[in-house]
Design a protein that fits this description.
Blueprint: E1 2-7, H1 14-23, E2 27-33, E3 41-42, E4 45-46, E5 58-61, H2 68-77, E6 82-84, H3 91-101, E7 107-110, H4 116-129, E8 134-141, H5 151-162, E9 181-183, E10 186-192, E11 198-206, E12 209-217, H6 224-233, E13 240-243
Parallel strand pairs: 1-2, 1-5, 5-6, 6-7, 7-13, 8-10
Antiparallel strand pairs: 3-4, 8-11, 9-10, 11-12
Helix pairs in contact: 1-6, 4-5
Length: about 250
């Protein structure tokens, strides 16, 4: 039985993961951590506000990007394997995490998106990228999402660039930002609209043709199955920082 603690308890991502852990037959929800909700009861447990009260074999980190590094520093100090679902890990922030975590001790897995469909969308885009002259990423999330672009879009752009893809350049911006953000040579556009959860399109183009690869999450439950895979298999990873659910699929 793997004992699982969830940091960021009560959040939109933490809740379906906690419910899935409780419903599983081989995982035990052993602790919930969130200093802002300490003392509250959820999923049959009292939420704690001190890292010393967290007793688990694996930590699932879902807290806000502003506090995720402080939390991860605590889990690293306690030598706990950690699965990170917090968004916003740019290449620079991944380097910060590598410096913080080091190459020894337990593994930490940063998962931009726990949805199996989203993982396949990113993989297909990376594989297709070298066959097209230009590629751009358009992501759509709910208007309360704290960061832009999304972690999924960042990871997608990084994968596309590694696969040899890039965006077409040459248009002068009459308004700054009109061409979107640039991530390793790939243009990323972030839309924020009420009512959405997670939707992303990768548009790839040659002269005379366009290929669109799109994924849509209609429920936060779409993230639960991938999270369980990460929890069960993180122990198979080598020490240090790993990126993407692909690492354990």
């Amino acid at each position: 039985m793997i004992r699982v603690a969830i940091s960021g308890a009560g959040g939109k991502l933490a809740t379906p993961i906690a419910e899935a852990v409780r419903a599983s037959g081989d995982l035990e929800l052993s602790a919930l951590y969130n200093p802002n909700r300490a003392g509250s009861t959820m999923h049959g447990l009292t939420i704690v506000g001190s890292a010393t009260e967290v007793d688990a074999d694996v930590i699932v980190e879902t807290a806000h990007p502003d506090v995720v590094f402080a939390n991860l520093e605590q889990w690293r100090a306690r030598d706990r394997p950690s699965v990170v679902g917090t968004s916003g890990f740019t290449p620079a922030r991944l380097e910060m995490l590598r410096d913080l975590w080091g190459s020894e001790g337990p593994p930490v897995l940063v998962v931009p998106n726990f949805s199996i469909g989203a993982v396949l969308m990113m993989r297909f885009a990376a594989e297709a990228a070298s066959h097209f002259e230009a590629v751009e990423v358009i992501e759509r999330h709910h208007s309360t999402k704290p960061d832009a672009p999304s972690g999924t879009a960042l990871a997608t752009a990084i994968g596309i660039a590694a696969g040899g893809g890039s965006s077409a350049e040459g248009s002068a911006e009459l308004v700054t930002g009109a061409r979107g953000a640039e991530v390793e040579g790939v243009r990323v556009h972030a839309l924020r609209l009420p009512g959405l959860i997670s939707q992303q399109e990768v548009a790839l183009s040659n002269e005379g043709e366009v290929l669109s690869i799109e994924h849509l999450s209609t429920s936060y439950q779409s993230f639960a199955s991938g999270a369980l895979i990460a929890i069960r298999r993180i122990g198979d990873l080598s020490p240090g920082v790993h990126l993407g659910l692909d690492a354990v699929l």
